[in-house]
Amino acid sequence: QAFYYPEEAGLAFGGPGSSRYLRLEIHYHNPLVFKGRRDSSGIRLYYTATLRPYDAGIMELGLVYTPVMAIPPGEDAFVLTGYCTDKCTQLALPAAGIRIFASQLHTHLAGRKVVTVLSRDGRERQVVNADGHYSPHFQEIRMLKEVVAVFPGDELITTCTYNTEDRSRATVGGFGILEEMCVNYVHYYPQTQLELCKSAVDPGYLHRYFNLVNRFNDEEICMCPQVSVPQQFYSIPWNTFNRDVLKSLYAFAPISMHCNKSSAIRFPGEWEKQPLPSITERLREPKPRCPPTPGPQPATPVPLNLGQLRRD
């Protein structure tokens, strides 16, 4: 469906001092190198010279695009979480807060679930957007059924679940289609200077993880600073111990917080080695809306002999 702005907000462009051009960027993926493919996609914009009360903006939530956040191979549901902390929103948001009205969840090919939750005073208050059956092939900007109000001191926590059962080596964070992202691009108003509110594990703690893995594997693999983070991840023998310790690291280690303006410059403050937000009360899982199917249900799958089936 078409994406549209609410009546009270719009994306401002044009006017004195503004660029005279809009640029559309399209990414292509053709791993089998099919020839002769042609693209007919495009975009149609509707605009008005009558300005709306509020200028709308876009903010990135989730994880920074960095290889320090990685997923071991052979995982059916590995979880990574990115934070927009209370320290950042307290500093960067106006006293009256902002209103989120649309959201675009984003991972690459391994993503299966994505959810962003609003937390206030350590308690989860509201789901901003969630997709429990996420597919990277059907990404869209979704209008929220209910506008979400975010105030200074609130936290926005984005969690992604990945499946790497078909992969033989670690999947690191990055821009490539076979690397991974965990992002929620939220559309909101009124526009602020805060354009990116994301996190990643502290690099120093990750280095300690590599040293630990090295010692427990008799130092047979090179976990040394001169080797890149992806290469160190690729060298890890993914036994149960190494997997579980990495999960624990992401669950307790401090984070490097990116509280950035549109210029990519961070707001003033100390953003390294920040503690993970403490959540004391979580939202209950919503109950399924579909009523149960009447009648007895088989306890196990029923095998069918296809040779006995016939067409009437």
TrEMBL record:
Role this protein plays: Catalyzes the hydroxylation of dopamine to noradrenaline (also known as norepinephrine), and is thus vital for regulation of these neurotransmitters.
Segments of this protein annotated with the region Disordered: 277-312
Enzyme Commission code(s) on record: 1.14.17.1
InterPro entries reported in the protein's UniProt record: Cu2_ascorb_mOase-like_C, Cu2_ascorb_mOase_N, Cu2_ascorb_mOase_N_sf, Cu2_monoox_C, DBH-like, PHM/PNGase_F_dom_sf, Tbh/DBH
Oligomeric and partner information: Homotetramer; composed of two disulfide-linked dimers.
Membrane-crossing segments per the record: none
Protein name: Dopamine beta-hydroxylase
Limits of the Copper type II ascorbate-dependent monooxygenase C-terminal domain: 54-210
Subcellular location: Cytoplasmic vesicle, Secretory vesicle, Chromaffin granule lumen; Cytoplasmic vesicle, Secretory vesicle, Chromaffin granule membrane
Pathway(s) where this gene product acts: Catecholamine biosynthesis; (R)-noradrenaline biosynthesis; (R)-noradrenaline from dopamine: step 1/1
